[in-house]
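Internal tracking record. Fields below are filled automatically when a chain is submitted to the structure queue. Please do not edit lines marked as system-generated. If the sequence contains nonstandard residues, flag them in the REMARKS field before resubmitting.
Queue: standard
Priority: normal
Entity type: single polypeptide chain
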Amino acid sequence: MGARAVAMTSCRPFHLMAKPAGPACNLACTYCFYLSRWDQGGVKGMDDARLEAYVREYLAAHPGPEVTFAWQGGEPTLLGLDFFRRAVALQQAHRPPGKLVQNAIQTNGLLLDEEWCRFLAQERFLVGLSCDGPPELHDRRRVDRGGKGTAQRVLAAAALLRRHQVEFNLLCVVGAHNVDRPRQVYRFLSRLGTPFLQFIPLVERRRPASAGVHDYAGPPGQDPAAELDPVSVTPEGWGGFLCAVFDEWVQADVGTVFVRDFDNWLGMWTGMPSSLCIHAETCGDALVVEADGSVYSCDHYVYPQHRLGRLGEEPLAAMVEGPRQRAFGDDKRDGLPAACRSCRWLKLCHGGCPKHRFPAAAGQPPAPHLCAGWMEFFAHAAPAFERMVELNAKRSPMAVMRDRSVLRALGLAH
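SYSTEM-GENERATED OUTPUT FOLLOWS
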């Protein structure tokens, strides 16, 4: 591994997500941008030396009283339970006095069984379970390596998590396969035994097939001829999806179902900073470490030009605080198009994720792909958010569900 890095503490809180199995996965989701990076020659997971470097340096470099280890992939459960038992033991061995350690894991759920769930419950892991809606929608894209749908196995995993009282949330990727069924998707997910939901817009570009290559494009600007993949969500589709889900939620589920983006925007409506990097003014505080210990600026920018160094060889805090990473984070704000800077919704949107900014047509300047969708949603939801802010000062935002004026403004009262 080379010389051991000198321990340093960052000046600001940051998050370092780990992909300990790299892009290896037991699914073959037809929209996955990581599939093209896996040679399928076996799972080359994070070895013990890299695992210890990750745990030791993350705990030492993080300045806050609480550190969350987030495990994603690919599919992290492919590494087996013993890997995560070692990770927890290392966390306890290297944890500074008084610092709270938490763990979160994002999984497709296929490998979860009784033993896994006992471990997750005992160690208080927060689990993110991927589900794209009812089986007929989920199975359109989320298939196994034999091409078979996985919905029933995901539902079985959710039942196991409930039985073992493991806290979990549901992550739903919204793309061409389910964007036209927002109410059905929301109702199905909200009844699976957890009140916590996330909706992630699918926006991917491919290099033109005419070039002899048909894989996912690199960062914006690297592949100017890249085309929007048909699996992606359109701006209009995304806006309509959000509006429809919001209408379902605001009529009956405020305070009982927690949609991550709605909660974030409600806080931003009161003047709080975004809790999500995609809608923060700048980014750069959410990094990723791959299985070989390489640290990159962001999970969406795992490309050679965004590699900051390797754990165990360079101090993690120096990577987080270094000029390259600070410039990467500031570029989100500094690279905003003129139309964004004068937009009435700028303080709620901040241009979205920079990975989703690219020309709508050849010769045009880069712009947020989902811009029209965000604007449609903010204009639609504004009356309800404004009323919830008012109600929160007096009693509870839940009262918005009985507010006829809000429902009329949303076109929901008859």
